Amino acid sequence: MYLIFENFVPLWNRFNHLIIPAIIILTSFIIGLMLHRLIYRQIKNASVCSNYSELCIGSLKGIVVFWSLIAGIYLAVNISDMPPRLLTIMGKAMLTIFLLSATVVCARLASGVINLNAKKAEGVFESTSILVNIVEFTVYAVGGMVILQSLNISITPILTALGVGGLAMALALQDTLANLVAGIHILLAKRIAPGDYVRLSSGEEGHITDINWRDTTLKALTNHIIIVPNSQISSAIVTNFALPDKEIVIVVPIMVSYENDLSHVERVSIEVATSVVNEMPGGVPDFTPVVRFSSFEDSNINFNIILRGKEFISTGPIRHELIKRLYARFNKEGITISRPIRIVRNEFKSQSND
Fold first, then answer.
1. Both 38 and 91 in a single domain?
2. pLDDT: is 179 or 104 the higher one?
3. Element (H or E) spanning 12, and its range?
4. Residues 95, 202: one domain?
5. Which is higher by pLDDT, 33 or 48?
6. ω into 244 cis (within 30 of 0)
7. Would 345 be classed as within a structural domain?
8. Where does residue 62 fall: left (phi above 0), alpha (psi -120 to 50 degrees), or beta otherwise?
9. 10 and 134 in one domain?
10. DSSP assigned state of 151
11. CB contact set of 296 (below 8 Å; sequence gap of 6+)
12. CATH of the domain at 203
């Protein structure tokens, strides 16, 4: 009996050293789930965080359970029979994992705050990848230095090496850095932003879809993507059809012959233009169309019909519909549209007759 008890005790001790750490890890996992639900409920109901509740929940998704599990593993390792050297390595590994996960949470929160504020407030930076990338890079860089410092690794030589290497990279990457600085300047100036319709002096035009660290992306009306380096955007003459507001004046030139009554032409043109801006989705019904006669030509009188559209892309459909309706109404009212007249003389034939 004594021999059986003597053999049982070592087996029980070994079993005890395995089962207790397992229980601790399982318990920490369950506590993590409970904390996750509690924090989720508190954030969801908190009036202070009402505007940022989804951001907070998304940033902390799965992290609370992960942190609780790390704490359980760390406690289980410390009560085990591991050698002191291995315990030290495991402790540093757990600390590194915790700091890395905390850095990920901070990066999520920082980029999320930029996107959220850009959507809810006018005058704040638009949600662009260049700002998100810069903020995330800064957070990860700071987090990396904190991790190195916690591992007793001096960051002074690293910063010195980065300074010298940064100078060499700056010389080698002048174009890339020029585009980066130009992109930041574009955002700071706040003269163009994603969603604006712009036209460059070089001819490219389209809606701005993104401004990243190297280039600006335009989406043309043909549904094609145009990629322009930020340095060219910064130095080009840019027409922004969204500033100071998106409404645009549409001028449609028309020619009528001298036989027409100009008062009748003006009245009919205003009626047709008014029906177009009232019925077309892109028209501005509050604006009364205007007719302005501009010049006498050899065989016609020129005038312009002036309307307003809600945005630049409304120009094409409104112009199309106006010309179509105006042509039909002019024919109905007996208004003659001037046609260019060209007289071609055969000089060779005239000379041969002589």
1. yes
2. 104
3. helix 2-45
4. no
5. 33
6. yes
7. no
8. left
9. yes
10. T
11. 302
12. 2.30.30.60
For Cα atoms 52, 58, 61, give the angle at the middle one, nearest 5 degrees. 135
The whole-number average pLDDT for the span 297-306 is 89
Residue at token pair 């120009």: 315
Average of pLDDT values for 185-200? 82
CA distance 200 to 181: 19
Q: Pick the range with the lowest mean pLDDT from 11-25, 70-84, 209-223.
A: 11-25
3-state DSSP helix/strand/coil % of the chain, to nearest 5: 60, 15, 25
Range of the domain at 78: 2-170
Listed residue (257, 310, 266, 264) closest to 289, CA to CA: 266
Residue type, 77: V
Return the higher-pLDDT residue of 1 and 82: 82
Q: Please give the average per-residue pLDDT across 106-128, as a whole number.
A: 63
Q: Are residues 234 and 258 located together in one domain of the fold?
A: no
The rounded mean pLDDT for the chain is 76
Does any domain span residue 177? no
Q: What tens digit of pLDDT does each residue of 36-87 get?
A: 777 767 666 654 455 566 666 666 777 777 777 777 777 777 776 667 777 7
Q: Quick one: pLDDT band at residue 16, thresholds 50, 70, 90?
A: low
The amino acid occupying position 271 is E
User: So what's the pLDDT on residue 232?
Assistant: 84
* The token pair that represents 96 in the structure block: 């590194």
Would you tell me how many other CB atoms lie within 10 Å of the CB of residue 328? 11
Check whether residue 57 and residue 85 sit in a common domain. Answer: yes
Q: What is the DSSP secondary-structure string of 257-318? A: -TTS-HHHHHHHHHHHHHHHHHHSTTB-TTSPPEEEEEEE-SS-EEEEEEEEESSGGGHHHH
205 forms beta bridges with 199
Q: Is there a single domain that holds both residue 213 and residue 157?
A: no
13-20 mean pLDDT:
60
* Residue 93 to residues 22, 71, 215, 227, 275, Cα–Cα distance (Å): 19, 12, 40, 44, 73
Question: Residue 143's closest CA among 100, 207, 193?
Answer: 100
What would the pLDDT profile of 95-112 be if each residue is shown by its tens digit? Answer: 888 888 888 888 877 777
- State the DSSP H helix or E strand holding residue 182, giving kind and residue range, or none if neither: helix 174-189
Full strand arrangement of the beta sheet holding 301-309: 248-256, 301-309, 290-296
